[in-house]
Design goal:
The chain is α/β, with parallel strands linked by helices and about 450 residues long. About 45% of the residues lie in helices and about 20% in strands. The protein folds into 2 domains: about 140 residues, 3-Layer(aba) Sandwich (Rossmann fold), CATH 3.40.50.300; about 300 residues, no CATH class. The chain is built from 17 helices and 14 strands.
Length: about 450
Amino acid sequence: MAMLRRKMLDKLIAWKHRANGCEAVLIEGARRVGKSTTAVEFGRTQYRSYLLVDFARLPQEVHDVFENQRDDFDTLFMMLSAYYRTRLYERDSLIIFDEVQRYPAARELIKYLVADGRYDYVETGSLISIRKNVEGIVIPSEERKMGMGPLDFEEFCWAMGEELLAETIRHAFDALRPLPDVLHKRAMRLWREYLLVGGMPQVVSSYVERRDFGEADDIKRGILQLYGDDIGKFANGDAGRVRGIFAQIPGQLSKHEKRFTLASVDKDARLREYDAAFFWLEDARLINICRNATDPSVGLGLYEDNASFKCYMADTGLLVAQTFADRETTPDDVYRDILFDKLSLNEGMLVENAVAQQFRANGRRLFFFSRSSREDAARTMEIDFLIVREYDDAAMKPRISPIEVKSTRRYGTSSLDKFRRLYGGKLGKEYVLHPRQLEAGGERIKLPLYMAHCL
């Protein structure tokens, strides 16, 4: 499998130079997003040696070393070095604790290992905050968390050998100039492939090598199966609710109003009974929750309405496979139709899900705005996303940018128009993400969908 270029590697290199041994880093993310692969690549390319301790498959001998030598680091390092046949070099070796949530005692030890100062430490894990994975341990303050998700669109372009096109897209966004038509078409074609393939590394690698949607679909179904097994294994008493929510996501996103309604899972459901299930799915990084912010002011988190939210899947490729989960395989013509823009499936949900995925990859929390008023149509509106961006007309102070996502070439913008009339003073630039060319004029900028990751 080809090594995929990931942005996380650059973040780790920057962390190494900045932290200089004074903290460990914890890479959090869903299973199969490439955490371990990236940590190993970091160790291989940036240190004289690295050593990987996999707590998901921990041999009893290594377990005993951790249990018995936690107060004697000289012996601990000597034994690990001998067991893994790897020489450790002071200040030039990396020790990776893989799937550290499986052995919380090792995570607690990080505090003392960092203080010891001989080596650098990267931990990887999923379900890091689930109660039983933090029970009885003191979380080390020397631990910097970094979230890692599936590949974003730019990383997908790199994987597909389109580094130069990815650079050109960035330059065009910065200059607010449209790409030449031929490159716009190529970028849109890549974006459509990304919608179908998604960003799970194993799926992308297979697609890059064989360009076979059927094989990619097969791998995605395997990953969904793995997630289903994890739910059964780790969600304890909430497994049924977690499964119910996860199965409902495609149906919820295909509605005109994409908000998640619990009644679809269980007609007598109460939100507080489902709180733990949503927390589990969010902590496992299987979903991205987008919350309704009732006031478009810069501290969006202060105005979130917890009862009103949209629930996206963390990977759009998995959403495609999940949509057809009731069949053994996803029909080939479905993939072909999406690729050639002839689809009957609600493509809006895939496009909006993919945009949410780009924003999360950029470290943004997700917010939307929704208000309905029976008496006053001028106050009824739905804005797909709200983000905070520096605004050039306000001395680069942060302002709210409303974003509408359009999957078709013809569309209206009545919600954006109303939103500007009502809240103009709080807003910066507004964006429409659509399948057409870039158009910039005044406060509204229309961007092609393949520039979502630039925002």
